[in-house]
Amino acid sequence: MRTDTAPVVRLEDYRPTDFLIDTVVLDIALDATATRVHADFSVRRNPAGRADAPLVLQGDELVLLSVTRDGVRLTADQYQADPQGLILPGPLPESFSLTIETMVNPSANTKLMGLYRSGGNYCTQCEAEGFRRITYFLDRPDVLSVYTTRLEAARADAPLLLANGNLVERGDIPGTGRHYAVWHDPHPKPAYLFALVGGTLDTLAEEFVTASGRKVEIAVHVEAGKRERAAYALDALRRSMRWDETTFGREYDLDVFNVVAVSDFNMGAMENKGLNIFNDKYVLASSDTATDADYAGIETVIAHEYFHNWTGNRITCRDWFQLCLKEGLTVFRDQEFSADERSRPVKRIADVRTLRTQQFAEDSGPLSHPVRPRTYREINNFYTATVYEKGAEIVRMLRSLIGPAAFRRGMDLYFARCDGTAATIEDFLGCFAEASGRDLGHFAQWYEQAGTPVVTASGQYDAAAGTYRLTLSQATPPTPGQPTKAPMVIPIVLGLVGASGDALPIATTNEATVDADGLFVLDSANATITFTGLTERPVPSLLRGFSAPVRLESELDDDDLVVLFRHDSDPFNQWQAGQTLATRLILAAMRGETVNTRFGEALGHFLDSDARNDPAFAAQVLALPSEADIARDIGRDINPTAIHNARLAVKRALGAELAPHLNALHGALQSSEAYRPDAANTGRRALRNAALDLLAAGDATEGAARATAQFDEADNMTERLGALAVLVLIPGAARDHALATFAARYGDNPLVLDKWFALQAGIPEEGTLDRITELARHPAFSMGNPNRIRALFGSFAMTNATQFNREDGRGYDLIADTVLALDARNPQVAARLLTAFRTWRVLEPIRRGKAEAALRRVAATQGLSPDVSDIAGRSLE
Ligand code: ARG
Ligand code: ZN
């Protein structure tokens, strides 16, 4: 059913459900077009609900076959039903059994929510509200039930049958060619964690022994013929399970843990209890087909979904407003895991890049919302960078504020106290308040107040007194529905650096306390810290490790920044100083000023000394701030072409200036060893690719030659794709040849072709629009597959700033047309694509007008899904 506007759901309207469903017994006969779902529920009145309320169950596009209560088949006048819901008016007893039979068509399910087909297999996606597309249910996260699932299918059609929990029975149905499997999950769970899989899959499995000696079979199932590419995911799963034991004391709690990779998936992956279902992009990897970034992504997402077993499944959310309770916390946990497995500073830099590109952009425009929103129309539109990434930053700040020991005690308390419940942010924070003895009332504001706080710093050195007065102030710009903002609790980790790079001692006179780790808590609009005992003017290094998700404006001059870039003991701020210097060069180039070369000199120095000690870090240093970073810094009247040109000019100048260093690095970092995706080799390849990219900007001829050689010689996807990414920016025969070679080599591998689609969609040239129209007709492209859409149209809209924001508006029209064409088929993916317009209001007037017209055209279209209608409406508010 398609509606123009869905009703608003409000946090303040939450009330407990009138009924509970303690057990769910499903008997599902899988069929490609006519799957029968027989569901038995044991229902009872919730003591916390209304005593005389009717039973109201949700449905979505369901065909109802029968309703039976306490063994008696109900007649049509005894209930009200349509595809969207089923109501039993009553009077109803305190407890009763209810049996519902429904029919669903998995092949017709193009929304990829509920039960659908992918690659010839059956799979499900139930978060947030997909279970109601399988049977009528109390489809809300605070209804926890014990599930038993019997699956039946033709053996030839689906030799493998999986559901949540442990396998209790399986067998043939003699003489029918059919077989069945019964799965039982003893852990009560909400319906959004239900899952089933049926089909022909290749399995890679091993035994995992938990800390207390329990044996668990862990398995990764992939589409037939892809088993060799499942090994890294299984390895990442094993490491994740061990890490959660050692770091948080969390053990796994079933006999099996299954991961299934499917090729059609709306998001990244899903943490269904004991049966995680993944977008195969986050499972499949081999040296020939996956980049180091893909390996890192697999490690992260495997860990993320596994960690949900405790933070999400054992403890779930009371309602969808509390989504960050599981998502922010679980992102924090997966970030910590990757930091422990790889380089902590490099992981932090990468995470902050994502936070700034995605979350800061979202938070500065019309789609800005609190980490815990107060209202929604379509919950699927709130699986956002704010809920996930900013949600993780809040947990990280909490740990800085109360310290790691109290944080761990708080987590232990949370696991002990809330296990088996559907919890809230208040429950979560309460555990940390208790464990630390701190009042977290003010801190809780981070969940309520949207927008990115701006922290301004200014300092005064008094040589005679040997003091340095640092004044910090904060302000948060207004966001939709929140015109005025209160001060937040902002943990600022800081240090003072002397001109020759020494760390200066920290002593303060006044109330303001800076603890031994350099932590100062800014919890009012302004504060002043007076540092004493100084014998030289210090350079303040503020917000070390990016200790809070804020924008920092400081008055450091270029010389100060060079000091930090050379000497800061905090790697994040060392990197940040380089980024700030580069940003200043780009902004100067936009004003037509001549390029100052102190950064080039410092970078040259860095490349010859520190860079080789930590190549992964050096690669981050070499990567200039993105066009989006610069746009965010400018903040208004954005002309993406002017930014692109200025950035390119700076990149060319740096590339030319540093050519000897870069050529040397590029040669020295070549390796003849067999490919390994470990941190050290990943870092080496990252730096090699970054060096190639910068040197090609400085000298296109030399760059194209080196890139072509790297492309031809590479024995791994990271270097092959790194070379191709450089070549696509240089028009000519070398580019055409490399693109054709790549397509021929990987013509039968859709995930690899996605990289080819994405690189071409990102080419900052006029011709890209026509190229995209042509690529959309490529036989490997399909509007039915979310990964293809994201690769081609998503990359264009999200990464190709000059072409999406063409002055003639044709980039906006292309995306608007694509959103409209996609909406009837897959509203979630369409709505996500439309968020590419989220910063339209800060564009210069001509582009702003064109973007607005495209958005209005979408918003005015009849029969929009609630998903797209919600994004279009809020974007225009
Ligand atoms: N819980 C999943 C994860 O982050 C995301 C599922 C979101 N799906 C959706 N249709 N909104 O791990
Ligand atoms: Zn998650």
Proportion in helices: 40-55%
Major sheet characteristics: 8 strands, mixed
Domains counted in the coordinates: how many? Answer: 5
How many DSSP-defined strands? 33
The second-level CATH architecture of the largest domain is Sandwich
Quote the beta fraction.
15-25%
Mean pLDDT: 97
State the name of the first-level CATH class of the largest domain: Mainly Beta
* Sheet with the most strands: spatial strand order: 6-5-9-3-2-12-15-14
Which fold name is given in CATH as the topology of the largest domain?
Immunoglobulin-like
Bound small-molecule species: arginine, zinc ion
Describe what you observe in this structure.
The chain is α+β, with helices and mostly antiparallel strands and about 900 residues long. The protein has five domains: about 10-200, Sandwich (Immunoglobulin-like), CATH 2.60.40.1730; about 315-450, Neutral Protease Domain 2 (Neutral Protease, domain 2, Orthogonal Bundle), CATH 1.10.390.10; about 455-545, Sandwich (Immunoglobulin-like); about 555-700, Zincin-like fold, CATH 1.25.50.10; about 750-875, Peptidase M1, alanyl aminopeptidase, C-terminal domain (Zincin-like fold), CATH 1.25.50.10. Helices cover about 40% and strands about 20% of the residues. The protein has 27 helices and 33 strands. The strands form nine sheets. The protein has an eight-stranded mixed β-sheet with strand order 6-5-9-3-2-12-15-14, with no helix packed on it. A hairpin with a 5-residue loop joins β17 and β18. α14 packs across α16 (about 680-700) and α16 runs parallel beside α18. The longest helix is centred in the middle third of the chain and has 20 residues, at about 345-365. It is globular and about 90 Å long. The model has no long low-confidence stretch (mean pLDDT about 95). The structure holds arginine (ARG) and zinc ion. The site of arginine has 13 residues, from β20 and α2. Arginine binds next to β20 and α2.
